Amino acid sequence: MTVRHEPVQARAAQRIEALLDAAAAVVVEHGIEHLTTALVAERAGASIGTVYRYFPDRVAVLVALAERNFERMHLAVGRVLAATHETWPEVLEAVVEAMVETFREVPSFRALRSGEGLDLGAQDREPIVPQYVAEVAVYLRERWGIEVDDESRERLELAIGGLDALVTYAFLHDADGDPRYLAMGLRIAHEQLEPVFAAVD
Fold it and tell me: Burial of 74 by CB count in 10 Å (0-12 exposed, 13-18 middle, 19+ buried)?
């Protein structure tokens, strides 16, 4: 998490979580462009000095909130991959359900997500899709005995990237997620992954 002082005590960690909760609420109510450290402090019931103790500016707040959002999505998808499913389409449907739940339940996720595509300044941040591709490749090998070659990796990138884009669009103007785009995302991901799983069908 991009903060000015790394927390070493539980109280400091709780304070950072409270500040990020406040930032999420400000984003939901006022939008990303209107988030300020002063609004975060006011919403958290803290002094502006407390905010600056951990975050040097508003961009640092947004980056930290985006990273927390990514971690929550990452954990949700990770729980799906750790569970037992009889068929790979069941896994895919469960992943989509986990994504949808994150969009619905995590404040600020619709607006900010993990920060990709937003101008948050010069940040050395690894793209999201390759991270998921690497983890899914491990999952395919360990759960299904599938070794991911270059062609399969390309299909994984298109499936994950396309699914992410369509789920994101589904929530752009609909707090519950437009079911048409959710269904399209699931269908396109299924089409891309079907050849990958052909050997185990």
Answer: middle
Check residue 119 and give its pLDDT.
67
Please identify which residue in the block is written with the tokens 């991911």: 148
User: How far is C-alpha 160 from the chain's CA centre?
Assistant: 12
Query: Which conformational region is residue 29 in: left (phi greater than 0), alpha (psi within -120 to 50 degrees), or beta?
Result: alpha
pTM of the full structure? 0.88
**pLDDT greater than 70 at residue 23:** yes
Do residues 87 and 145 make contact, with C-beta atoms less than 8 angstroms apart? no
Both tokens of 57, joined, read 């500016």
128-169 tens-digit pLDDT:
899 999 999 999 999 999 999 999 999 999 999 999 999 999
Q: Does the structure show a pLDDT above 60 at 123? A: no
Instruction: Please name the residues in contact with 128: beta carbons below 8 A apart, sequence gap of 6 or more.
Output: 70, 114, 116, 164
What are all long-range contacts of 75-78, with beta carbons under 8 Å and residues at least 24 apart? 76/101, 76/102, 77/132, 78/135
Domains and CATH numbers, the chain: 66-200 (1.10.357.10)
